[in-house]
């Protein structure tokens, strides 16, 4: 079987057109920026900055060509990706076959955007996101990886076992046919093989699952901790605020990366407190998890109790279900003591998870505290106090909803930071297993032969970069729209 080229037989027709479109776009943008700078400088020296009126005419004329050229370039890029759907296998090359593998993702994205654009006026801040081009691009990138992780779990995107090794496929280039492929096997390593003869593409898409499980969940737990502590600290002030702020500042005094490395080292993971009279040791991950994982449970109990305080039947039902279900999950996650063995977490993942929560919580606390100090002076808070509302009701149902804009933006940004930190830990071989397909570990494995075979390291690096870029653009879009409220 022949190796696949990047663009296949279609490249003979598409490559020249695509190259001309890209060059035209680059030259147009560069000329626009240069001419705009020259005209602005000339206008300042001739008429002065206060007397400058209207846009520069020549640069604006060039700007009219940027959008059409961008649209043509994007359309040709879509042809590369989607041509494999309607052409015989291999005709559209590696790019076309990658487009075929991601077909469920494209469909899910199309449906999501169609429904979101149709009902955006009924979807609050999420709907307003689709009024921001930057936010839409960021949302599309993030959801691409979210849907990829979902469909990988359904075996709809992945081509090979991410841990499987195939003889003769060590460090093979992208598009290399699989040696000794059996019936039903995917016939090529689309993005090549790594130094252990594993499929780079399969490891890359499988790695999205690891990142998109740990990063958002750990960030959500960190927000639960930060909100639960930040609300009373900002609202009540006094000694409570002083004590919690001092503890948060102690954690923030350590450099983030150094604190991460310290928490996930094998020596710290094995250290702990031995229970007298038993051989059991409370390790550092268990101690941290037992404390930090309590905060979501406390937050939800207080949330329902304050909301339905005047309706005892509903309050008891919601609080009881929260304690029952939350306590069961807490036992499995924090203590690995689920009596039905349904909920547990690997030790390597646990220490990374609690480290993310521990390091991010003080920063979230300071953001929430600052917002509460500002919002508690508003008239609607005074009105709630006059009505006789309890302090926790005011904090959770008056102050917190009005602080959601900055918190949602920070949540998106913090997932990006956490993704980078997970990649950094994996790169240094800390926390997760060395066989893990997470992007940081994969980059570390590929860097040893980077000058000879760059593809095993470049592919996960681009994936990591794209996800973080999408999260940053999404946060920018949310910030832009939240400021309009």
TrEMBL record:
Keywords for this protein: Cell membrane, Membrane, Transmembrane, Transmembrane helix, Transport
SUPFAM superfamilies: MetI-like
Residue ranges of domain ABC transmembrane type-1 in the record: 208-475
Keyword Transport: yes
GO cellular component terms listed in the entry, alphabetical order: plasma membrane
Example of a GO biological process term: protein transport
Alphabetical list of Pfam families matching this protein: BPD_transp_1 (PF00528)
Annotated TM spans: 12-35, 65-86, 98-117, 129-152, 210-231, 243-264, 279-304, 316-335, 347-368, 411-432, 452-475
Compartment(s) of residence: Cell membrane
Top-level taxon in the UniProt lineage: Bacteria
Membrane topology recorded in Swiss-Prot or TrEMBL: Multi-pass membrane protein
Family of this protein: Belongs to the binding-protein-dependent transport system permease family.
PANTHER family: OLIGOPEPTIDE TRANSPORT SYSTEM PERMEASE PROTEIN APPC (PTHR43386), PEPTIDE ABC TRANSPORTER PERMEASE PROTEIN (PTHR43386:SF25)
Protein name: Peptide/nickel transport system permease protein
């Amino acid at each position: 079987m022949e190796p696949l080229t990047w663009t296949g037989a279609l490249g003979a027709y598409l490559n020249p057109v695509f190259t001309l479109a890209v060059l035209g776009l680059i030259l147009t943008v560069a000329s626009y920026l240069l001419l705009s700078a020259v005209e602005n400088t000339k206008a300042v020296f001739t008429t002065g900055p206060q007397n400058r009126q209207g846009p520069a005419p020549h640069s604006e004329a060039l700007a009219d060509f940027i959008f059409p050229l961008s649209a043509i370039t994007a359309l040709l890029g879509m042809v590369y990706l989607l041509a494999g759907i309607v052409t015989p296998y291999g005709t559209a090359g590696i790019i076309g076959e990658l487009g075929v593998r991601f077909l469920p993702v494209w469909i899910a994205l199309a449906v999501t955007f169609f429904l979101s654009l149709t009902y955006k006026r009924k979807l609050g801040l999420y709907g307003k996101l689709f009024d921001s081009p930057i936010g839409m691009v960021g949302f599309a990138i993030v959801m691409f990886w979210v849907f990829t992780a979902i469909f990988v779990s359904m075996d709809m995107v992945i081509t090979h076992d991410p841990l499987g090794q195939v003889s003769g496929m060590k460090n093979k280039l992208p598009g290399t046919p699989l040696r000794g492929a059996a019936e039903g096997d995917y016939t090529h390593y689309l993005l090549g093989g790594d130094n252990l003869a594993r499929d780079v593409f399969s490891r890359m898409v499988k790695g999205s699952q690891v990142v998109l499980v740990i990063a958002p969940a750990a960030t959500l737990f960190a927000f639960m901790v930060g909100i639960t502590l930040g609300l009373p600290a900002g609202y009540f002030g006094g000694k409570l605020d002083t004590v919690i702020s001092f503890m948060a500042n102690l954690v923030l005094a350590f450099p983030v990366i150094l604190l991460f490395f310290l928490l996930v080292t094998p020596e710290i993971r094995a250290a702990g407190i031995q229970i007298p009279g038993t051989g059991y040791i409370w390790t550092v991950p268990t101690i941290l998890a037992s404390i930090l994982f309590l905060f979501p449970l406390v937050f939800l109990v207080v949330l329902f109790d304050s909301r339905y305080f005047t309706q005892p039947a509903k309050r008891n039902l919601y609080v009881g279900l929260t304690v029952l279900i939350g306590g069961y999950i807490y036992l499995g996650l924090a203590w690995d003591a689920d009596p039905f063995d349904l909920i547990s977490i690997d030790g390597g993942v646990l220490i990374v998870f609690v480290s993310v929560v521990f390091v991010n919580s003080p920063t979230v606390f300071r953001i929430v505290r600052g917002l509460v100090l500002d919002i508690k002076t508003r008239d609607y808070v005074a009105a709630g106090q006059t009505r006789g509302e309890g302090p926790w009701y005011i904090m959770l149902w008056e102050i917190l909803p009005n602080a959601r804009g900055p918190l949602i933006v920070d949540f998106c940004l913090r997932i990006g930071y956490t993704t980078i930190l997970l990649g950094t830990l994996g790169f240094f071989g800390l926390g997760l297993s060395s066989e893990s397909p997470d992007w940081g570990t994969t980059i570390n494995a590929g860097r040893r032969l980077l000058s000879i075979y760059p593809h095993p390291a470049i592919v996960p690096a681009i994936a990591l970069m794209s996800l973080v870029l999408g999260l940053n653009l999404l946060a920018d879009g949310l910030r832009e729209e939240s400021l309009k409220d």
